[in-house]
Design goal:
alpha+beta; five-stranded antiparallel β-sheet; 1 helix; 5 strands; elongated
Length: 88
C-alpha cells in the first residue's frame, strides 16, 4: 500500500494511508534516510516484524512535488485583480 508522511511527532512519523482512510505511527528510525514530510512511501506490513517495512517511492514522490509546484505557479500567475466591481 502507499502512504504519505504527514508529520513527525517526537521520534515517530505519522503516515497517512488515504485508500484506507487511516494513519499509522512508525518510528522515524524505520524510515529511509531521504524521507521528509510529504514524501510518498510504500508500506509492506509483515507479520514477523513489529513495524511495517517502509520504502521511498521516488516516482510518485516526484509526481506529487510536480503537481504541487504547478498549482503554486498557477496561483501566482493568475490575474490578481478582483472579480467584484465597485459601485460608484
Amino acid at each position: 500500500m502507499r502512504g504519505i508522511i504527514d508529520r513527525f511527532e517526537g521520534e515517530s512519523a505519522v503516515i497517512l494511508i488515504e485508500t484506507e482512510n487511516r494513519e499509522i505511527l512508525v518510528p522515524a528510525s524505520e524510515l529511509p534516510e531521504d524521507c521528509t514530510v510529504k514524501s510518498t512511501v510504500n508500506i509492506e506490513e509483515q507479520e514477523e516484524r513489529k513495524h511495517p517495512k517502509i520504502t521511498l517511492d521516488p516516482e510518485a514522490d516526484q509526481e506529487n512535488r510536480q503537481k504541487s509546484n504547478n498549482l503554486r505557479k498557477a496561483l501566482l500567475d493568475r490575474n490578481k485583480g478582483s472579480r467584484l466591481k465597485r459601485r460608484e
